[in-house]
Amino acid sequence: MMISYAIALIVYICVVKFPDQIFINLIYFYTKAIIIMPTFDIVSKVDAQTLDNAMNNAKKEILNRYDFSTSKSTIDHDKKTNVITIVTEDDMRLKAIEDAIISRMVKQNLDSKSLDFGKEVYASGNMIRKEISIKEGIDKETAKKIVAKIKASGLKVQASMMDDQVRVQSKSIDDLQGVIALCRKEDFGQPLQFINMRN
């Protein structure tokens, strides 16, 4: 009873005493409700320093191998374009270098799904050249798949694409946790991280 009376009093003050501010008040409270709704972002990022450490360790491993003692192989990582370029003599050495890179990434707790392997092409002489792109950011098609999967789950959340990430919001923290569990089970072709959780 007291609660109903208090609500009625607030409505009376807003409508009778300050009629010109009703619309402003409604916008304020509606916006505030949206802002405080729990959210988090789904992103795909690779820590630059950790990747650099993995690449340096892979280079050392290859240079110290007996079967590469006479090799002219090179491994270059362009940090601006985030592309790894391998140049070597044959497919066997190329595979060994790729395995070394993946192994060192795993040891640094980096997901090898962030590697986008291109096709090998012949460089000058008999050397083979291959570029490996580091996938960062969620592309539009992958984002659509993530949003569609979340919507199909039946969880009471809202998922939307924002630039190269997906934002998820809900009134329920449990439903947000459910989305994280769902996405961790699925393979979207690249590693995902769940950041900026706001209660």
Written account of the structure:
- This protein has 199 residues and is α+β, with helices and mostly antiparallel strands.
- Among the domains are: 1-36; 48-134, Alpha-Beta Plaits, CATH 3.30.70.990.
- It is built from 6 helices and 9 strands, in the order ααβαββαβββαββαβ.
- It has helices spanning 2-17, 22-35, 48-63, 91-107, 140-152, 173-185; strands at 39-43, 74-78, 83-88, 115-117, 121-122, 128-134, 158-162, 165-169, 193-198.
- Strands 2, 3, 4, 5 and 6 form a 5-stranded antiparallel β-sheet that branches.
- A hairpin with a 4-residue loop joins β2 and β3 (83-88).
- α3 packs across α4.
Write the layout of secondary structure elements.
Layout: H1 2-17, H2 22-35, E1 39-43, H3 48-63, E2 74-78, E3 83-88, H4 91-107, E4 115-117, E5 121-122, E6 128-134, H5 140-152, E7 158-162, E8 165-169, H6 173-185, E9 193-198
Helix pairs in contact: 3-4
Main pleated-sheet profile: 5 strands, antiparallel
CATH architecture of the domain at 48-134: 2-Layer Sandwich
CATH superfamily of the domain at 48-134: YajQ-like, domain 2
Rg of Cα set:
26 Å
Q: Given this structure, which CATH class of the domain at 48-134 is correct?
A: Alpha Beta
Shape: elongated
What share of residues are in beta strands?
15-25%
> Gap between N and C termini, in Å?
31 Å
Provide the residue-averaged pLDDT.
85
